[in-house]
């Protein structure tokens, strides 16, 4: 009777725990969504940054014309006169996701605009990412750790920076796809289910559609599989988790037009194929071991290893031949810049010029992951107690993501989920130890706790326990032995041991008990640490990452100032220029010009053609006449320049000018960076070089600038007076400057009519008269 009541109480407690967990997850999803809509509340529902405007424009085309026209869309408004095939050069995951949401809402008679759907796509998928983090961490260390990790990810500033409302970029859905793919891999690894393995391949396909960072997955999972094989942790579950992913995932990835045959031809994917061969050799060895005697097994292993080495050598030789035929050894420029942080600055300045491709500073780690940086080491230690296949994967994940985040600040986004998972595990284990210590020492709770020892929230799930039990059998299924008395006796002893509470476990639990005062103080400090993390995350979401870059604000003694110069300039272009006019600017503003002004641009943020970008950089670095000739050859009618010297906007074209010189000089050798530097320093004052003072960028930025402050010409960004104040333009004319002088538009003057000199006229008249005499005709030419 007592046993029945105890079982009933456990069932009720289990059901109540599941319901409570569901509501906590629901609240975490609401938190993840609501903390990202500060940008809409404080400003307005608008697309942020630069790249999202291209994604928004593509989504508009998709919803208006359909998916078939989207795949075949040739955009003649970008990269003039080359154009761009959109369907074959874009990762379609984000666009198709937002388009599907828009079609679904309209089918349900919820008439939202495409822009509204695009603005709120990132906050919605941030909630999905938090839930995926819960399931992933639960597979590693249990429900408590999963809830903690999900709550941390919902608020982590590094992820908020890429998923606020209006941040309509690929990472908005890609981080969810990344975490969900890892979860399905771990789930397959724990269960050995082919169903989850198939879902894993489909999730990987969605990741390939969404972001070029899918190469991180297809390299991290082979690294983990190889680690399991080397450390003797191979099992049939590892085979089921890995092989379908490589086969189905590669076939599905090749269906994405932007990837295509790169899924089997580039070096980023070769590691998965090499491990695929190795795991089959190991699987064959384990299979032979189960059906042969030990003596025959040694002979077979020798044969298998010999054949395997020959096959591996052949594959490696083919891969080496393919790699050697490429000047970059089969790697893309961005991948090489990750493996060699100095590669981009040496050979590809267009990659090094992007601010998010720079290495992060130490304060940026505290800004983006805050206290998680101190909890991650504790989480790594907890993963080794005990070490399982799932926990070894997350350890490998955090190690690789820390390295890549140190190379490129953009990849702090990949570090954020790993840091949240490790911190969630650390917090769960810490709360488990401290609460158990309190239960052991509080009267009335110690007896009940002894009955429920080991039944804490942070205990690993059943799949993980089953995983560890299977590993003790060396992950293979030997041939069944005949039942003997000795074997029966051993089985009986094992059953008795399992039925009786372990004395050793009780002793271990008792040793983990801390003094009551220490446990209470530690819990208070943990709660205080969490409160500090929440305050920092809310501040980062509300102040640091909510402002859209297209609308700038500043606070001063006389209140809030709003700078809406970008939209002002694009609106002027849209209303005061012809539809077919071409606009030249630096590539940062190409997407916005095309999407908001609906005008043709020469270069944009896709940066696929380095020569075309170098041509624009050369024009900006050249004297006025030479620049006019370059732009005139490209059929350019207007030039857009961003200037922050009046209001103190530091991300203007003068600060980016040296990258224009470097990129232009990489293609056109007559542009040399030392010509623009004075004693190795970049200057715009009276000590600037003549080449700098006479280049087009300098003239277009500082034209009439001295008139703004009574002739001084003081640049608030560079903190100095300009070196050339009375600038005159001969081949360009100013047509529009925004209210705060942040965007300036110039029009190319038409070419002058060629006036013949007097000597040429006299020669032409004499030659005409001679010809008339010879021909014997005295008729006058009516056109002279």
From TrEMBL:
The chain crosses the membrane at residues 12-35, 85-105, 117-136, 142-160, 172-197, 203-227, 239-264, 270-288, 300-324, 365-385, 392-409, 415-434, 511-535. The keyword Glycoprotein applies. It catalyses: a di-trans,poly-cis-dolichyl diphosphooligosaccharide + L-asparaginyl-[protein] = N(4)-(oligosaccharide-(1->4)-N-acetyl-beta-D-glucosaminyl-(1->4)-N-acetyl-beta-D-glucosaminyl)-L-asparaginyl-[protein] + a di-trans,poly-cis-dolichyl diphosphate + H(+). Its cofactor is Mg(2+); Mn(2+). Its main location: endoplasmic reticulum. Its EC number is 2.4.99.18. Residues 473-501, 752-784 are annotated as: Disordered. Residues 752-764 have a biased composition (Basic residues). It is found in: Endoplasmic reticulum membrane. The keyword Transmembrane helix applies. GO terms for cellular component: endoplasmic reticulum membrane. Belongs to the STT3 family. Component of the oligosaccharyltransferase (OST) complex. This is dolichyl-diphosphooligosaccharide--protein glycotransferase. It comes from Daucus carota subsp. sativus. The lineage of its organism: Eukaryota, Viridiplantae, Streptophyta, Embryophyta, Tracheophyta.
């Amino acid at each position: 009777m007592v046993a029945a009541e105890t079982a009933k109480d456990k069932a009720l407690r289990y059901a109540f725990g599941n319901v409570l967990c569901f509501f906590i997850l629901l609240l975490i999803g609401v938190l993840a969504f609501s903390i990202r809509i500060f940008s809409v509340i404080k400003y307005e529902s608008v697309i942020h940054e630069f790249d999202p405007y291209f994604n928004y424009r593509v989504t508009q085309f998709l919803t208006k014309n359909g998916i078939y026209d989207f795949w075949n869309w040739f955009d003649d408004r970008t990269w003039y006169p080359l154009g761009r095939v959109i369907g074959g050069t874009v990762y379609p995951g984000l666009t198709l996701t937002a388009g599907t949401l828009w079609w679904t809402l309209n089918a349900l008679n919820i008439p939202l605009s495409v822009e509204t759907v695009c603005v709120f796509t990132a906050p919605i998928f941030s909630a999905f990412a938090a839930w995926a983090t819960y399931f992933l961490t639960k597979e590693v260390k249990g429900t408590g750790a999963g809830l903690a990790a999900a709550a941390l990810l919902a608020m982590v500033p590094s992820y908020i920076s890429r998923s606020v409302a209006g941040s309509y970029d690929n990472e908005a859905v890609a981080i969810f796809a990344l975490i969900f793919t890892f979860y399905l891999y771990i789930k397959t690894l724990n269960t050995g289910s082919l169903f989850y393995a198939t879902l894993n391949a489909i999730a990987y396909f969605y990741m390939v559609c969404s972001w070029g960072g899918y190469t991180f997955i297809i390299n991290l999972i082979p690294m983990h599989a190889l680690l399991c094989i080397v450390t003797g942790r191979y099992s049939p579950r590892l085979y089921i988790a890995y092989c379908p992913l490589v086969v189905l995932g590669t076939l599905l990835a090749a269906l994405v037009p932007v990837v295509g045959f790169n899924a089997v031809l580039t070096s980023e994917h070769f590691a998965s194929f090499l491990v695929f061969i190795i795991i089959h050799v190991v699987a064959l060895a384990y299979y032979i071991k189960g059906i042969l005697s030990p003596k025959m097994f040694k002979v077979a292993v020798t044969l298998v290893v010999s054949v395997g080495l020959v096959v591996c050598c052949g594959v490696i030789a083919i891969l080496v031949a393919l790699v050697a035929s490429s000047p970059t050894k089969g790697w893309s420029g961005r991948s090489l810049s990750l493996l060699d942080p100095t590669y981009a600055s040496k050979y590809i300045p267009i990659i090094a010029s992007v601010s998010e491709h720079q290495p992060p500073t130490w304060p940026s780690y505290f800004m983006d992951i805050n206290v998680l940086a101190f909890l991650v080491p504790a989480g790594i230690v907890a993963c080794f107690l005990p070490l399982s296949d799932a926990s070894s994967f997350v350890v490998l994940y955090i190690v690789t993501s820390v390295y890549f985040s140190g190379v490129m600040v953009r990849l702090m986004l990949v570090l954020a989920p790993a840091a949240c998972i490790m911190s969630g595990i650390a917090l769960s284990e810490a709360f488990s130890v401290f609460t158990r210590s309190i239960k052991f020492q509080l009267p009335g709770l110690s007896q009940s706790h002894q009955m429920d020892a080991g039944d804490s929230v942070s205990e690993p799930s059943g799949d993980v326990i089953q995983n560890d039990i299977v590993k003790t059998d060396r992950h293979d299924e030997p041939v069944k032995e005949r039942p003997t008395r000795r074997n029966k006796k051993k089985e009986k002893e094992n059953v008795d041991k399992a039925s009786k509470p372990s004395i050793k476990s009780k002793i271990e639990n008792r040793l983990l008990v801390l003094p009551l005062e220490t446990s209470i103080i530690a819990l208070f400090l943990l709660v205080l640490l969490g409160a500090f993390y929440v305050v920092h995350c809310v501040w980062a979401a509300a102040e640091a990452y909510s402002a859209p870059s297209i609308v700038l604000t500043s606070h001063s003694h006389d209140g809030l100032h709003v700078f809406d110069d970008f939209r002002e300039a694009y609106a002027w272009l849209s209303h005061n220029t012809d539809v077919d006019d071409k606009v030249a600017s630096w590539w940062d503003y190409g997407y916005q010009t095309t999407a908001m002004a609906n005008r043709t641009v020469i270069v944009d943020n896709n940066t696929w053609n380095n020569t075309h970008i170098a041509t624009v950089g050369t024009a900006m670095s050249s004297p006025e006449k030479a620049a006019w000739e370059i732009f005139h050859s490209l059929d350019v009618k207007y030039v857009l320049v961003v200037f922050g010297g009046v209001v103190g906007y530091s991300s203007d074209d003068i600060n980016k000018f040296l990258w224009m010189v470097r990129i232009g000089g990489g293609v056109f050798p007559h542009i040399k960076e030392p010509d623009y530097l004075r004693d190795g320093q970049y200057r715009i004052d009276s000590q600037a070089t003549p080449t700098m003072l006479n280049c087009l960028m300098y003239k277009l930025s500082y034209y009439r600038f001295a008139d703004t402050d009574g002739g001084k010409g003081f640049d608030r960004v560079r903190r100095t007076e300009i070196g050339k104040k009375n600038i005159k333009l001969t081949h360009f004319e100013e047509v529009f400057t925004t209210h705060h002088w942040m965007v300036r538009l110039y029009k190319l003057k038409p070419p002058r009519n060629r006036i013949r000199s007097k000597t040429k006229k006299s020669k032409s008249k004499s030659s005409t008269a001679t010809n008339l005499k010879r021909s014997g005709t005295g008729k006058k030419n009516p056109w002279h």
